Request: fold
Amino acid sequence: MAAALAASSPAAAPEAFEVMPENWDAMRLFLAMETQWRRAGMSGIATGLDYAVLRPVARLCGLVVGADLFDRVRIMEGAALLAMAEAAGR
Reply:
């Protein structure tokens, strides 16, 4: 457990990166959704974000989900799924 917590700590995070202003709300929402991944059966492989909680989470962040914000979050979701698959050797 301690190793998992250490791996997710800010010290273990990759280098800082720039977020373009037009993507800031999507980044905030995507990060707020970090515990809302759907997983496949016993394998635990992430299959995507739980869209049922997207609007409530957005509301808690002071955001309103429209088509543009939803599309931007989906792009981040796709990139994250690809990165997780690559990290797992799939």
About this structure: Confidence is low (pLDDT under 50) at residues 1-9. Residues 21-87 form one domain.
